[in-house]
Amino acid sequence: MRASSPVSLAKRADFPLLAAQPKLVYLDSAATAQKPASVLTALETYYSTVNANPHRGAYALSAAATEAYHDARVRVARFIGVADADTLIFVRGATEGMNLVATAWGRANVQRGDNIVVTRMEHHANFVPWQQLALAAGAEFRIVELDASGSVDLAMMKRLVDSRTKVVAFGHVSNALGTIHPVAEIVSIIRTGAPQALAVCDGAQAVPHLAVSVDGLGVDVYAFSGHKIGGPMGIGAVIVRRAILERMPPYQFGGDMIEWVNDYETTWNVLPHKFEAGTPNVSGAVGLAAACDYLDALGMEMVREHEVLLTTAAMRALAELPGVTVHGTATAEGRSGVVSFSIADVHPHDVATSLDAAGVCVRAGHHCAQPLMRAMKLPATTRASFWVYNTLEDVAALTRAVRATQERFAGV
Amino acid sequence: MADAALDALYQEVILDHNRRPRNFHPMEHASCSADGRNPNCGDQLTVWLRVDDDVVSDVSFQGQGCAISKASASMMTDAIKGKSRGDVVQLYEKVHKLVTGEDPALAKDKELGSLRALSGVSKFPMRVKCASLSWHAMKAALDGASVVTTEGPEDARSAS
Predict the structure, then answer these.
(1) Does the annotation mark A368 as catalytic?
(2) Of residues B2, B16, B65, nearest to A357 (C-beta)
(3) Average per-residue pLDDT for chain B
(4) Is the ipTM of this complex over 0.95?
(5) In sequence order, what DSSP letters do the residues of A354-409 get, joined into one string?
(6) Is A365 close to B40, i.e. CB distance below 8 A?
(7) CATH code at B82?
(8) Which residues of B touch A380 (CB under 8 A)?
(9) Which residues in chain B have their CB less than 8 angstroms from residue A379's CB?
(10) Residue A6: inside a domain
C-alpha cells in the first residue's frame, strides 16, 4: 500500500459540505457527488457578474453570458474527449439525454418489425426509454442477459443484434455493481451484426471515475450527468455523432432552437441550438466546466488509481466478514468505485439505517436497476461507492459499522 | 444519541418478530387480501384476512421486506386477530399516529401493547413507510382493494 494511502486524493477541505461535517463518511457518490468549493464559486460568480439571457441581448452582458455558455461547452467537450463541441447537447442529465434520443431519433426511425437491444445491467434511465419506444413503435424489445460470471453475455448480444436492430443501448459502467463493460467489443458486435443500428452508451457512472474519450469509444450516442462529477444538479450532456444530429428532428420546440418561424412552418437553428429549446442552464454549464477543471487538476488517471485502491481494500475487508457477500466482478480492476454487498439475514434498509447511525452514508435498494435485481434474485443490496475525497479510514469506518450491524441483528 | 435512537428503533421485540414472524403464511379461503408495495425500495407483502360476522377471525401475511416492515406486519397480525372491523380501523389510525410521531403520548398507550415498540420509527422519517406498509395493505383488503402502494396521492410524503 502506498504511504499516502490513508489520505484522500482530493483535499476534504475543498468540499464545503464535507469540511463542515468532519465525521461524515460519505459513501454514496455513485448517487451524487459532493461539490468542490470551486464549483460553488463558479455558480456564484456567474450569477453575480455575468448573468443575462444568452443568444438574445445586443448588449455586452448578454454577449458575456453567451460566451460563458459557449466556453463551458468547449471545456466539457474537451474533458470527455469530444472534438466537435457542437455535438454536445446540454441536458438535465443522462436521463434526459437518453429520452432526447429515444424520442427525437426513435420516433423518426423505429418502426414495427424493427428491434431494440438493451442489456440486463442497465439503469432504468437507459432501459425504460427504449422499452417505451419499442412499445410505441411496435418494435421488438430484446434484453441481453448476464452470463455465468455475472457480466453482460456478449455471445448472446451477437445473436440478438441483426439487420432489423435500430438501437443497441448499453452502459459504460454499471451503477448497481460497478462493472466496467467492454465498450470496444460491444461496438464491434454492433458494427458487425447491425451496422445500421445506433450504438448508445450510458456514461453516467463512467465519467466520474475513468478518463473517458467519447470520440475514442466510437459510439453514436453518449450521455452523462454533471452532478455525479461534482457539478451542479440539473446539468449534463448527451453527445451524438454530427451526421445523426443533423438528420434528427428536434426534441423540444421554442425559443433559441429556431432559425425562422413562418406562420405555418418553421426552420431549425444550427447545432447545438436545434436541440436546446428555451433559456439554457448557463450557470449549470459553467459549474460543470468548473468541475471538469477540478478533476483535470487531480488527473483522471490518479482518480482511477485512488478508487482501485479503496475498492480493493473495501472488497477485501467486507469479504473477510462471515455472512457478507460482495456482488459483481471479483477484482477492483473490473469495476468502478462501487461495492455492492449483502449481509445474511439483514435487509439492506436496516443495514443503511444502522450504518447511518454510525455516520456512514450508503445507498440501499434496487439502485434503479430492477431488471438486474430480478435476474440476480435479490430484492435489494447495500451499495458503498467511493470518490476522490474518500480514504482508507472511510473503508475502515464502513467495515466497523457493518460488523456492528451484524452484532445488532445477530439473533438466537 | 444516534445509537440511542437506533436502540429505540430496533427494540428486542422488533428483532424477535423479524426473526420469527407470526402468522407468516398464505391463507386459503381468505375473505379478502391485498398486496402492499413500496416502489421506493421494492418491498412487497400480501395480507390475508378472514372476516366472520364483522370480526377478523384470522389474519396472515407473507412477503419480503426489512426488519421494520416484517415486524410491524407480524405484530399487526397478533394485534387484530379477534377484533371487530371497527376496532381494527381504530387501531389502524392509532398506529399511523404512533409511527409518524403525530401523537407522542401513544408511545405510552397501554392498549397498544407490544405495538408501542414501533414508536421508535418516528425518529426515522425514511422508515415510516416500512412500518405502515402492512397496515395499509390490511386496510385496503378490508376496503375491498387488492393493491396498495406507499406512493398514493394521499399524504404520500409524510407517511403512507
Answers:
(1) yes
(2) B2
(3) 89
(4) no
(5) HHHHTTEE-EEE-TT-HHHHHHHT-S-EEEEE--TT--HHHHHHHHHHHHHHHHHH
(6) yes
(7) 3.90.1010.10
(8) 41-42
(9) 42-43, 64
(10) no
